[in-house]
């Protein structure tokens, strides 16, 4: 089988898995009316944003308003006086940071409760996604000369892992096995998922993002970030920057992504493109250091999860968990009571799908 045929096969499998999910008892949450508006705002240059329009969106959602006020009064932003109005909160936090955070809180609220799964903490998952999104946005800055939209990179970083949430909800037993295998064998989670499901969570996520009418470049970036070399044209830059941001987020010690192993920064596809000025070692180190310092300063106020201590290899200590008790009110995503592992909801579907390509 040629590489092209294999890629087509994986595409068909991922489509079949996504269809199985859509036809199952779990229904993909529809995109609320404010979703496209928030995504549109995060993609715009800051000087092109109408603050009044943004305020109207937040004022219409008491939950988002409460979270933004809480952020403005958090340890990172706290001033002498407590902020009690949205406009004052925007001034204190900054328009760009506020828009980014609103997108984080908005997408957090779309998903139902996640079953209790060993090795998968929902609050830690969103904290990691926040770190990845912020790293990606910085890497997409125009001074990097990568010809990408920084806001689209932010959304790609924020939503790159929603396939994990879908698998955790719909197939908790199989997904739990993937997490355990990846941790035990120190393998990338997507490698184990491909064997178990016939598709990776990133491929599934890209299909679901397409259903939500997320911009196609974001969908492609999510689809190929684990293997950017397979992407084409401008999609390759998006995927490569997202892969690099993912590695930076893993290095930061913020949150937990479920991976048994994450490629070192120097092993990413983008780091190997030595013809790009940014990826001269000195330039790369300076930007990564800037990103890491910013993430560590802000993490707890934005996500309720402080950075974990670093192990000997520079990666987070896997035994440490987020300070659940220190999460700002309303910030953590609740999980259902601890339940026993269940048998697969549709045990034959993946075997049948894979058999089509053997």
Give structural attributes:
Hypothetical protein af1432, 358 residues, 2 domains, mainly alpha, 16 helices, 56% helix
Total beta strand runs: 0
Query: How many helices does DSSP assign?
Result: 16
CATH architecture assignment of the largest domain: Orthogonal Bundle
* Terminal Cα span: 10 Å
CA-based shape: globular
SSE inventory with pairings:
Elements: H1 3-22, H2 34-43, H3 51-59, H4 62-72, H5 86-93, H6 95-108, H7 122-139, H8 150-159, H9 162-170, H10 172-185, H11 189-197, H12 201-211, H13 216-224, H14 234-252, H15 281-303, H16 349-355
Helix pairs in contact: 1-12, 1-16, 2-6, 2-8, 4-5, 5-6, 6-8, 7-8, 7-14, 7-15, 8-13, 9-10, 9-12, 10-11, 12-13, 13-14, 14-15
Q: Can you put this structure into words, describing what you see?
A:
The chain is built from 16 helices and no strands. The chain has 358 residues and is mainly alpha-helical. It folds into 2 domains: 32-109, no CATH class; 114-352, Hypothetical protein af1432, CATH 1.10.3210. Helix 5 (86-93) crosses helix 6 (95-108), helix 6 packs parallel to helix 8 (150-159) and helix 10 packs across helix 11. The termini are close together. 44% of the residues are buried.
């Amino acid at each position: 089988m040629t590489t092209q045929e294999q890629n087509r096969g994986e595409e068909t499998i991922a489509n079949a898995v996504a269809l199985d999910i859509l036809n199952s008892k779990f229904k993909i949450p529809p995109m609320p009316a404010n979703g496209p508006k928030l995504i549109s705002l995060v993609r715009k240059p800051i000087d092109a944003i109408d603050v009044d329009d943004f305020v109207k969106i937040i004022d219409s959602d008491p939950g988002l308003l409460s979270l933004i006020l809480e952020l403005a009064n958090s340890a990172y932003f706290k001033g002498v006086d407590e902020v009690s109005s949205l406009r004052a909160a925007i001034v204190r936090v900054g328009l760009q940071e506020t828009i980014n955070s609103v997108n984080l809180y908005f997408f957090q609220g779309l998903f139902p409760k996640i079953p209790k799964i060993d090795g998968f903490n929902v609050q830690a998952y969103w904290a990691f996604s926040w770190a990845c999104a912020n790293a990606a946005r910085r890497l997409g800055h125009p001074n990097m000369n990568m010809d990408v939209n920084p806001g689209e990179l932010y959304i790609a970083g924020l939503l790159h892992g929603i396939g994990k949430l879908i698998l955790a909800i719909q197939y908790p037993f199989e997904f739990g096995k993937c997490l355990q295998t990846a941790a035990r064998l120190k393998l990338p989670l997507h490698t184990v998922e491909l064997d178990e499901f016939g598709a990776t969570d990133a491929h599934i996520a890209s299909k679901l993002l397409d259903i939500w009418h997320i911009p196609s470049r974001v969908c492609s970036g999510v689809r190929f970030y684990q293997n950017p070399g397979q992407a084409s044209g401008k999609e390759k830059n998006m995927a490569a920057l997202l892969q690099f941001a993912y590695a930076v987020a893993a290095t930061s010690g913020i949150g937990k992504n479920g991976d048994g192993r994450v490629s070192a920064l120097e092993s990413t596809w983008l780091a190997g493109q030595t013809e790009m000025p940014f990826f001269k070692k000195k330039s790369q180190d300076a930007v990564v250091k800037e990103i890491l310092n910013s993430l560590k300063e802000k993490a707890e106020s934005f996500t309720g999860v402080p950075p974990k201590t670093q192990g000997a290899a520079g990666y987070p200590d896997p035994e440490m968990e987020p300070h659940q008790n220190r999460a700002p009110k309303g910030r953590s995503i609740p999980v259902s009571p601890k339940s026993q592992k269940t048998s697969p909801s549709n045990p034959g579907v993946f075997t049948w799908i894979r058999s089509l390509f053997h």
